[in-house]
Structure formats: C-alpha cells, structure tokens
Here is the input.
Amino acid sequence: MKLTKKQKSAIIGMILGDGYLQKTGKRNARLRLEHKEDHKEYVVWKTSLLPQLFQGKPKMMERIHPTTLKKYRYVRHQSNSSPILGKLRKIFYPDGKKHIPENLPNLMKDDIAFAIWYYDNGYYSKKAYATYLYLGKITKKEAEIARKTLLVNFGLKSYVVNKKDKGFALYFPSSEKEKIKKILQRYYIPIMAYKIPS
Here is the structure.
C-alpha cells in the first residue's frame, strides 16, 4: 500500500489525537476513530483522506456513560487491518498504552498532522485568548518531545503545562495564534471552526 507524505502525517495526527490503534494479529493493526454524534462531518473528512484504509460509512453507536448513566450517541469508523498500522502500533503503543515516541519529528512531516491533533485535542479559550493542546496522561519527557516537534517542524512555540488530573498540555502564547489559525484554515472543517483561535 502506497501512502503520500500528507496521508502518513494525517495518520500520525489521528493516532496522537483521539484515534486508537487496535492490534489485529501479530503484524497488523487497525485505526478506530470515534467522535460525538455532532462531529460526524469531521469523521467523514478524516476518513476521506485515507481511501486505501477506510471503506463504507461511519456507524452511529450508543453508549451509557459509566458515571452519569446517561445514554449518548457517537460516530465510529474503523479502518481495514494493515501492516503499516501494525508498525505504528509498535511505535506508539510499546507496552499497550499510548505514548509519544522520541522519533516523532521524523513521523510528523506535514502540518495536517498538527491540524488533526489540534482539532481532536486542542482548545481555544475566547475569554483568556489562550490556546492549548491537551496531551493526556503522559510523562513530562514525552510532553517535551511534542513541544520540540511542533517548534522544529512547524515553527510553533509552546510551553509544557501540568493540568493535574487532565495530564500535560501545551500552552501556545498569543504570538502563535495567527500561525495556528493559518494552518487550521488550510484544513477548514465548518463543524470544527469553533476551535480556531480568533
């Protein structure tokens, strides 16, 4: 299977964000994408980037929240099983848990990776004029790898901040707002526009 540089970077963005690589056999894995019902348009856009991996249409699913016991609907689309994804699973899930690998700068070559990662886990506070990218429960060292990658590959300056229960996040100062906006507008998805710094 041949993938372009942009497609490879898109996959990396999905893995760093809300995507999950599920092991299927010794060498293969598949990519599972899940988003809330309102973001179906975003899921469709993501999968349209990778026609070699995603066939059919996303499915509407229901789940009961373990704490509130409320039923909610979400969209799921799973890729075909592939050895390419199997190799990436070994890099990002060396012990079964998602990590940010040291070679991230070599994997994240195109800014579509940042756009997808930000649309998945980014947040813009209009009150504070602050932009964040949430990294989750990872180590400080992994957060530093993420920070350096965005600086070296895309010229985006950020600071690692500890959000306690939410894990580490990258905080982007106001000087980076226009740079982030420019990248996201290249991959504009109307339903995700509320995340673009304004």
Notes: The longest strand covers residues 28-36. The chain has a mean pLDDT of 94. The beta strands are 20-24, 28-36, 59-64, 71-78, 122-125, 130-136, 159-162, 168-172.
